[in-house]
Each structure stands twice: as C-alpha cells, then as structure tokens.
Write a structure and sequence with these properties.
230 residues; mainly alpha; elongated; 3 domains
C-alpha cells in the first residue's frame, strides 16, 4: 500500500461483531505492513477495541519469501490458519509460485470426534440409515474444504471416517467377522471419494465467460514504464 490505510466502521447502522473477527492483509513491503498495523491499533483504540496479542503477527509470505529466507538461513516461510484452512507457500507442477491450502488439523480432529460421538448414539440403527447420514456428512465437509491442493487431507478424513464406522460396527456385534475386504463395498457405496469442488477463480471466470473471439487466448502486451516486478 502506497497510501494511508483507512478503516471504516458502520456506527450508524449499528453493526455488531458476534465473535472475534479474523482479518488477513497482504503487503509487498514489510514497512507498509508495520505502518498499517500501527495505524490499525490506534484506530481500534478509538472505539475501545484491541487486537489479540497472541493471534496478531507479521509473517513473511509470498513469491519471494522462500528464496529470501533461504539466503538468511532461517528456514521455510511461515504458515497461517484462516477459516479452518492452513495456508502455506508452494509450487505448481510447472514450478510457479502458488498458495496451497489444507484443512487445519484441529478442525479435522474436532469434526471426527463429533462424528464418533454421533456414531455411538446410532450404533444400533440400520446400516442404510447410518450410511445415508455419513454420506451427507462427507458431502457437506467436501463442499467447504474441497479446494485445490487439499485432496490429500480429504482422503485422510475419509479414511479415518471409515475406521470410525468400522469400529462402531464391530462394537455392536458380539461376533467380530467384519473385515476390510467385506466393508470395502459398504464404504464405496456411502463414503464418496473426494474431488476438487472449488476451482481457481480464473477457471470459474473462463467457464462463465467463454472466449469465442478470433484473438481469444492470446496474451496482451503491456508496456510499463519504471522498475521491475519486485
């Protein structure tokens, strides 16, 4: 940010924050981030608010973070968790920079614990009813977490969910004859395989705005005066 940052509050509308508000702001230069944080603290103080000291931090993140930190010998770039997803710097298959996201471990553990408690309550329910419920749970979980690069975490979630269901089925029966090969068809029927449901914004734009002009798909040449990209 090259200009002064302003934070506006809708006082006349009576806006209230029902819980702690999470804010992630990106800057190109560290000096700009430090200036914004200082101004933001002063602005919140005018309304009797303050930032959480343990959850507010400045971290080096972005395209050049890995190379700059490697030169200083301080390891990989830091990660941060927002909206239940852990964000970290990564590379595409072609070697370009990208921001990867995966499900936060604490959120996955809490969700599995909740499912385990419900499975115990439905221990003696028909398998069809339990399977139908687990299918809806999986689909709802995928609808939020199925972002690009997070298929591995979703696969782990599905595997652990199948383990919980198998343990519940074995507990309700006095004769333990349930094996993985026999339960494979059951899991395939009710536990859907994860797939990416939220493509990148560029792909969503191409899907809603198809390019059918003669020069579609050709890059535009822009001449910019001044310095480089960094």
């Amino acid at each position: 940010m090259s200009r002064e940052a302003h934070v506006r509050f809708c006082e006349s509308a009576g806006v209230k924050f029902p819980c702690a508000t999470h804010l992630v702001v990106g800057f190109q230069h560290r000096a700009e981030a430090e200036r914004f944080l200082k101004d933001f603290r002063e602005r919140l103080a005018q309304f009797g608010l303050e930032l959480h000291p343990e959850k507010t931090r400045l971290l080096e993140f972005g395209r050049f973070a890995a190379s700059d930190r490697c030169k200083r010998g301080i390891g990989k770039p830091e990660t941060f968790t927002s909206l239940g997803l852990t964000h970290y710097c990564g590379r595409t298959p072609r070697g370009g920079f990208t921001v990867w996201r995966k499900t936060a471990s604490k959120r996955m553990a809490a969700k599995l614990k909740q499912i385990q408690q419900t499975l115990r309550q439905r221990m003696h329910a028909p398998i069809y009813d339990v399977g139908e419920w687990l299918q809806s749970v999986c689909l709802g979980y995928y609808q939020y977490h199925a972002v690009p690069g997070n298929l591995h975490s979703l696969g782990v979630f599905r595997h652990r969910l199948s383990q919980l269901w198998r343990a519940t089925l074995r507990t309700r029966s006095q004769r333990d004859r349930l094996r993985w090969d026999r339960l494979g068809a059951l899991f395939s029927r009710w536990l859907p395989v994860p797939r990416t449901l939220h493509p990148y914004p560029s792909r969503r734009f191409d899907a809603t705005h198809p390019r059918q002009k003669p020069h579609a798909g050709k890059p535009l040449v822009r001449i910019c005066a001044g310095g480089g990209q960094r």
